[in-house]
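Shipment paperwork, digital attachment
Item: protein structure file
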Amino acid sequence: MLDIFSKLFQKDTNSKDVAKERLRLVLIHDRANMSPELLQSLKEDLITVINKYLEVDQEALEVNLSNVDDSVALVANIPIVQVKRSL
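Attachment content:
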């Protein structure tokens, strides 16, 4: 978790670090055997289901694959605008 914060607030990144991060993301996607199109489709489906119960900021919603303890995890950051009270 600290690794994520350090990357977010790190001021000087060199091209080696950027290339390393891109390669890491490519490897994660390859391990999960999920194309970018499939990930986008999953994101759209998640929005559809979640919108049934919550109003979310669709522009800020992020869905990514992440490497966690030698496995791949689906990580979603879903900003909630408000809870829908009635179904």
